[in-house]
Amino acid sequence: MLIIAIAVIKVLLITVFGWVLMRRRYMDDRVFDFLNKFLVDITSTCLIFAAIVENAKLVRGSHVSKFLIFSLLVFVIGWILGMVIAGVVHGPQAEISGLISFQNCGYLPLNIALFLLPPLLCREFQVYVFLYLLGFNILMWSVGSYFMFKRRGEKFDLNSFLLPPVSGTVAALVVVYCGLSRFFPDVVLSPVRMVGDMTFVLSAIVLGGWLAKVDLRGVQDKIIALTFASVVRLIAVPAIFFLLVVKMHIYSLLGLFIVLTAAMPAAISLPVVVNIKKGDTDFVSQGVFATHVAGIVTIPFWLGLFLKVSQFKI
Question: Can you name the CATH fold of 2-310?
Answer without folding.
Answer: Na+/H+ antiporter like fold (1.20.1530)
